[in-house]
Amino acid sequence: MNSQNAKPVALPYNRTRQAREAETMLDRIVDDFDDNPAAMAYFYDLFRRAWCQGEPMERTGVRVGTTCIHAPEELIYAMGATPVRLCNGSYHYDQIGADFMPAKSCSLVKATLGMLSSENAIPRIGKLDLIVNPTTCDQKKKAGAMMAAMGHAVYDLELPPSKESEQSRVYWQRSVREFALRLRSLTGNKLTKKNLTAAMARTGRAQAAFRTLHNFRRKAPSLVLGKDAFLVTNAYFFDDIDRWTEAVEKLNAELARREKDGFCAAQKKAPRILFTGSPPIFPNLKLPLLIEQAGGVVVADETCSANRMLYDMTSVDEWLLNDMVDSLADKYLKPCTCPIFTNNEDRIRRLLELARSFAVDGVVYQSFAGCQVYEMEQRSVAEALNKAGVAMLYVETDYSLDDMGQLSTRIEAFIESMKTRRRKAA
Amino acid sequence: MNYFAGLDIGSTAIKVALVDEAGGLVGVHVSDSGSLFHKNAKEALRVLLDRHGVRREQVGYLIATGYGRKLFKEADDSISEITANAIGAHEVGRAFGGVRTIINIGGQDSKAIQIDANGSVSNFAMNDKCAAGTGRFLDVAARNLDIDLEELGDYHFNGRGAPLTINSTCTVFAESEIIGLLANSHGKEEIVAGIHYSIARRTVRLAKRVGIEDRVYFDGGPALNKGLVAAIQDELQRELVVPEHPQTTTAFGAAILARQEFLAERAAA
């Protein structure tokens, strides 16, 4: 008997707390609603395999993790590598990541650190050859060094603090070019007009599919629920881009049929909600889920896990490599409405535009506790929306499920107040 | 003759209100929530109906609200306690010349609600996920001091010294603070007044977040506590409107809405 070397027996993954957390959320997303689109089965299955069963998500070649939407994916694809978005929504990883961060810090950063410090992290995309960490908010900036301390190769992609000035634009273009050089030394491949054009076509097709889906959500009554839309955009984080695009195109085809058949995914009178603030990332989809369980429908969003990530396309003036890279840099800087920018009037403009064009009744603004920039911007956003006659509910929350009861009361009251207002206006 | 019921299943108490076809309040009943919410809610409804000689099938529409609203399957509909509270307070407030701000303290949460002239909710705030400054806090404090909950009001006014300061907002920490004050042989009266002021400060902060307009209506179980009412008035520097049955405003609001829904459905049919 040599019991000293006996390894402790670990639970099979699908019975761990992490798998249970994901499963509970997925079951609610799938089972609590009737008439889920048939094309959503692809996404439900993907999350079930990746998150509930811990199945390996095979990725060949060089893998580049990104911690933010500012990392230009087209460069990564052009050099023959695969980008994987690392922003994480798991409470289990949030708890692990709490070791690295002060008590009052953002769940997303904590969960991402928790994931990166774990062996065999979920989703199982394998070892990362590089993590590109755009210097956005303070917490993400400081997290980069912690990732490096864990043994990851980290590249800080320098982002300017504002996006309006010409010097910020020039600074950022240089950052992007530097990044291209770093990728070249990582992959051994050169950036060419040909491979960059092909990469732009690939992401362009994915963006076009997203835009089509986005436009379907304008329709009233709704053809698709927000909880599904968020799951679709969350899948983009780690799914194969071409497979993802095909699956979204299938979903769009189904929505087109739904429109023809006069199908309603929510009640005709369901209050239409625009979602903004800290990004909903699976398994933390509790807020969109609560909104739709309370009888509202999330018709649009202004977040970096969905609309902000996929909406904007690169517009190239001159198809020469240098100009292409600069256009690409512009696309990542100019339309971005992240609250890290010192002046972010653009975000308010964007929200008002979305509220108008999607006939929105109210806005739900999520802020992860400890995310200072979103917390600070909520006042000005609330003022601008109220002036435009759009109600806003500000919710400060984190990844734990402790506040579900309280949140459901608040969200229901918010949805009810919009229904009442509409009845009185009629 | 049809009747309409509102059932407010709270964390601490179950409140039932019954209105008739003209919208007049027939009666109310309050009982403990206990641990069997569903059974106790059914029982509370039965008691109220028996008292007024109303048969269950005469209840044309029933709306459940409160923490346990989803558990009560016999309800025709459920609404959040914020909406129900606003409807009830708007109705009861008429007798006081109308109210626009509501402060509600319940068994495990506190809310501030702003309503417009028609009684629709225009803004609201709710405490976060902790029991500080709620009825539960009063409950814990009374138990530490060995006082009946109903006696807290008298203690508040019988103190000779100034209210003591309770610094902790957390119920658990406040508990040790209270025990510390007792150990230092401070009078129970001054401690009680201190507890009321600590709740009042928190509540007023919450109310200021939604904005205070016009008359302020104060309801929920703790509004029965005259000492707490005095402390909130002092912190707010204005007089509160406290209804005769502060515990049942929300149930009454749900009953009013039940009647409206019933009439709307009948008109549509």
TrEMBL record, chain A:
InterPro entries: FldB/FldC_alpha/beta, YjiM-like. This is Double-cubane-cluster-containing anaerobic reductase. Belongs to the FldB/FldC dehydratase alpha/beta subunit family.
TrEMBL record, chain B:
The lineage of its organism: Bacteria, Pseudomonadati, Pseudomonadota, Betaproteobacteria, Nitrosomonadales. It comes from Candidatus Nitricoxidivorans perseverans. One of its GO terms (molecular function) is iron-sulfur cluster binding. Keywords: Iron, Iron-sulfur, Metal-binding. The keyword Isomerase does not apply. It comes from the Bacteria. Coiled coil: none annotated. PANTHER family: BIFUNCTIONAL PROTEIN [INCLUDES 2-HYDROXYACYL-COA DEHYDRATASE (N-TER) AND ITS ACTIVATOR DOMAIN (C_TERM), BIFUNCTIONAL PROTEIN [INCLUDES 2-HYDROXYACYL-COA DEHYDRATASE (N-TER) AND ITS ACTIVATOR DOMAIN (C_TERM)-RELATED. Pfam families: BcrAD_BadFG. Its cofactor is [4Fe-4S] cluster. This is Acyl-CoA dehydratase activase. Gene3D superfamilies: 3.30.420.40. NCBIfam families: CoA_E_activ (TIGR00241). SUPFAM superfamilies: Actin-like ATPase domain (SSF53067). Residues 6-258 form the ATPase BadF/BadG/BcrA/BcrD type domain.
